Every structure is written in structure tokens, then in C-alpha cells.
Amino acid sequence: MLATGRHGGWAWLAVRDRGPGIAAEHQERVFDRFWRGPDVGSGRDRGTGLGLAIVRQVVESHGGGVRVHSEPDAGATFVLWLPLRAAGAVERTPKPPALDPLAAPTPT
């Protein structure tokens, strides 16, 4: 699933998969260069561990951030946050939000 939107002074792009999810202790490591999860497939489909590190570097070079939201057996959502730059000042939080824009709203 792919979705886009705005929140405050930020634009976001979210990508959600239906894979096995990412354990909490591995979520920050997925952005490290050459790191591959312990349960990633074997052989030629393993990849190099560079894709998400490159994404983070490009997004951060534009003043944004990347977040991962995941639970085991529930897939993962990666959200790219980029600052909106319009004519004039844009009010926004100094850091990208930590929320998952695709998550169901919590009941009040």
C-alpha cells in the first residue's frame, strides 16, 4: 500500500507491506548501512542492506526524517516526512512527527 498526505508543516509518503513485521529491537537498525535482519531470506534474495540507509540519507539531507512502525506478524509501515516549503514561513514542529498516518485513529 502506498499513500501520501500532509500533517502540519510536513508532507508524508507511507509504504505499508504485509510481511512478517520487524521486531521492536531491530526497528532502529533497519536504517543502518549493511544491516540485514536475522530472519531475512537466504541466497540471492537477501539484498545488501543499503536501500533503507540510502533512503534515510536522502530524506534527511532535505530536512526530513524516516520512521518505521511495525509489530511482528503485522507487516511494517515506513513513513517519509519532508518539510513543506512554500512562499513565506511554514509553521511546523522542529522534528518530523513520530505518528503512523496509516494507523487507525484511536477511539476517544
Automatic annotation (TrEMBL):
Record carries keyword Kinase: yes
PANTHER family, per database record: SENSOR HISTIDINE KINASE YXDK, TWO-COMPONENT HISTIDINE KINASE
Protein name per UniProt: histidine kinase
Gene3D superfamilies in UniProt: Histidine kinase-like ATPase, C-terminal domain (3.30.565.10)
Domain Histidine kinase: 1-86
CDD domains linked: HATPase (cd00075)
InterPro entries xrefs: HATPase_C_sf (IPR036890), HATPase_dom (IPR003594), His_kinase_dom (IPR005467), Sensor_HK_Regulatory (IPR050736), Sig_transdc_His_kin-like_C (IPR004358)
